[in-house]
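DM between two lab members

TW: hey, do you still have the DUF4351 domain-containing protein entry open?
JB: yeah, one sec
JB: this one, 216 aa:
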Amino acid sequence: MNKLFDIFAEIKRQAKVDNNRVAESELPRLWILSPTASESILEGFRTSEDLENWEVGVHFLGNYLRTAIVAIHQLPRIEETLWLRILGKGRVQQQAIDELEALSPENPLRAKAIDLLLSLKTTLEVNQNIDQEDRNLIMRLSPIYEQKLAEAKQEGLQEGIQTERRKLIENLLRFRFGSLDTQLTGIIEPILAFSPDEFTPLLLQLSREELLDRFM
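TW: and the structure you got?
JB:
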């Protein structure tokens, strides 16, 4: 919140330089997205809701603080809140993913959100210190990943599949070794002959020397 006040001060300093006046209502607001928020926490911050203008689950702190807490688990199950509920936890997140899959394939937001979720899946997979909830999310997203690959193949977008796999391999190599040098770049093409289920464990477990010996 200190950062928010620093931003306020900078805006007001600039307004003074420009000989302008900034109303309090024009200052930016800090949005705190929380998967859950207990009543005791909300009461502790003395939050209030503005149900005439905002949905249930959006809790505002005092006017001068310009801050709101979005309790994701309280948000209504409507399309307008879908993108926030995807950031939730447990059942709330699972329901949001189900709703996302049910959207029309022509919906541009559906494709973009699924891409972001699959990117999250990749990030979680390379992180060896994940909890059971993250493992459940990976399992939930795996069919979506496989379906996306199947759809791409059916549409004749084999090049797109290879590009996606190449990016995954590059990300895994960067995660393990920090950067891609000439030798590591040289083994990407041979690795592409394997499926993600086959090459992911290899890239996470084998040393640099073992990878070079196997794929060079």
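TW: got it. The CA atoms of residues 98 and 210 lie 41 Å apart. The chain has a mean pLDDT of 83.
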